[in-house]
Amino acid sequence: MIKKTDINTLKVTGDFSNDRINEFKKNYNDLKRTSAKPVIDLSEVQHAGTLALAFLEYISRNKKVEIRAAESLRSEIEEFAKASGYENAETKLSFTDRTVATVSDFFNELGDFVILSADIFYYSIRSIFNSSGRRKGSVFEQMFLMGNNAVPIVFLLSFLIGLVLSLQSAAQLKQFGANIYLVDLIVIGMILEMGPILTSVIVAGRTGSAIAAEISTMKITEELDALRVMALNPLKYVVAPKMLSLTVCLPILTILANFVGIFGGFIVGVLYLDLSLDIFVNRTFDVMTLYYWWQSMLKSVLFSWLIVLIGAHFGFKVKGGSEAVGKAATSSVVASIFAIIMTDAVLSLIFYFEW
Amino acid sequence: MEKENVIEIKNLTAGFDGRTVLENISLEIKRNEIFVILGSSGGGKTTLLKHIIGLLKPEKGSISVFGKEILNMEIDEFEGILKRIGMLFQGGALLNSMAVWENIAIPLEQHTQLENEVISNIVKQKLSLVNLEDAYYMLPSELSGGMKKRVSLARAIAMDPEILFFDEPSAGLDPITSSDLDELILDLKKKLGITLVIVTHELESIKRIADRIIYLQKGKNIFCGTIEEAKISHIEEIDRFFGWDKD
Q1: Domains of chain B: which residue ranges?
Q2: Radius of gyration over alpha carbons of chain A, in Å?
Q3: A262-294 pLDDT, tens digit each
Q4: Each residue's pLDDT tens digit, A100-148
Q5: What structural domains does chain A harbor?
């Protein structure tokens, strides 16, 4: 029982087990508020649990509090203090050291990424000509997973983006009677920018994260080591099929997205801007040059490589347990989208100003 | 006749991030013996194993397998050596996306040009060796811990390796399954003439199967020899490990 015997004293009787600690703490806090010289009377307590010992040791550091306890309990408290009283050697780095460490970590990681990328390219190219060390049918299986299964979502989202983009611009164009230029806007916008970017962002979210999660799980469960011991190179066995199939799938998805997005623009043009069907179609083919398609395909091939390489990089560098798998997947998506948009910006500037 | 050494390690020193895990280890493993690596937790047992199979690179020393130095070896040549060894990982390390038969077929499909039917028959025979005929089409996620290890063993012996490595084969197994596994190991040694290198803690199994042992203490080799020799060596750590200090 925990009871106040007088204005300054809190008395505990019976076994001071762990489940009484909250009650005791509440009483103790009340006592501390009302009394200038609190006394904890534990003289009848024979044994206390670890939680009680820890708390008693903590309050005994307050010189104002008097603890009355039997010799055995007092020595238990002292023992606890001894066993827990060591300093943890936490290494604290100065701000400069931390900055240097962060920067050098970044460059180390970048170096690792470059080396891994070179290896992946090497094994992917090799495995085009020599399928040994690669699972039978794995490229087509991956194409199905990465390409075919992504069609509905790419279809829907690029249609909506094409539609909305046209609608917002149509309102402006209408004011100047420049309705026909909607075609130029949507064709160039989709083929050069929205098609490749939208598709690769969707694929980065779908496939890039899956690659990172799969490889990191394989690393944690020693599956990669098991492959190595079977004289199989994980880059060739696991990564090369993904690299090859995404290099094919992403451009195809991009072509699809471009056309579907333009179709979205077509609906706005015909229904909202009263363009006739043959005018829209003729103008479309006037604007759509091979040069634009070439840029679009170049972008999507580069983006597909970025997605696989970044996914693989985060997968292979994982350390730890299941939590790290989730982190690897998330980081790979963020990093791929970042890399995709950066690359897109650089390429667009180069092509626009024809450097 | 003295048997040839299949593995020779000289003055191996290894570590991670500046922390030494193995210090100046030298040992020889002879053909067709069961060599057990013992030691306290964190003593460097698994690290030693991973160095022998080339998964980790040492700081100093030399490792030769089948009489050939494996460090600085060309990758193609090293793969040739890997095809002659098998390894059973602690958690089984089966590829989770593939069924049991596909897992066992990996090395056969990749390293031979055999017909699918022949491969399938080899897989069946290996599965019956480990008493898992029913698991052919199962996925690794449907197997218990012990079954995973047995499938992993079937995969490791798929190519009839000359050396088989085990990383804690009986960890997490009940005594009966564990003793069945010991029987299987002795069988492999006798029938196929395999050399076995095993990391384990299980006293019973060590006493039953080990020909020779190495005892690692904080990365140092404090004893290497037969169990009888260990008993008369009177090294305190080893006496405590085997419980001989109480006799």
Answers
A1: 5-84+161-246, 96-160
A2: 34
A3: 999 999 999 998 899 999 999 999 999 999 999
A4: 999 999 999 999 999 999 999 999 999 898 877 788 888 999 999 999 9
A5: 2-84 (3.30.750.24), 119-352 (no CATH)
Separation CA A106–CA B228 (nearest Å): 54
Q: Provide the chain B residues 60-89 that lie in CB contact (below 8 A) with chain A.
A: 79-80, 82-83, 85-87, 89
Complex prediction ipTM: 0.88
Per DSSP, what are the bridge partners of residue B14?
Answer: B22
Indicate whether B99 pLDDT > 80: yes
Separation between Cα atoms, residue A221 and residue B150, nearest integer Å: 16
Three-class SS state of B178: helix
Are B151 and B98 in contact, with CB atoms under 8 Å apart? Answer: no
Task: Specify the length of chain A in residues.
Answer: 355
Tens digits of per-residue pLDDT, A338-355?
999 999 999 999 999 987
**DSSP class of residue A50?**
H
Instruction: Judge whether B118 is closer than 8 Å to chain A, CB to CB.
Output: no
Beta pairing partners, B37:
B199, B214
- Please identify which residue in the block is written with the tokens 């690769």: A200
Q: Token pair 């037969």 is at which residue?
A: B226
Say whether domain B5-84+161-246 belongs to CATH 2.40.128.110. Answer: no
User: What region, left, alpha or beta, does residue A15 occupy, with left being phi > 0 and alpha being psi -120 to 50 degrees?
Assistant: beta
C-alpha distances out from residue A298 to A185, A195, A254, A293, A336, Å:
21, 12, 11, 8, 17
Residues of B in contact with A225 (CB under 8 A): 50, 55, 89, 93
| pLDDT band at residue B29 using 50, 70 and 90 as cut-offs | very high
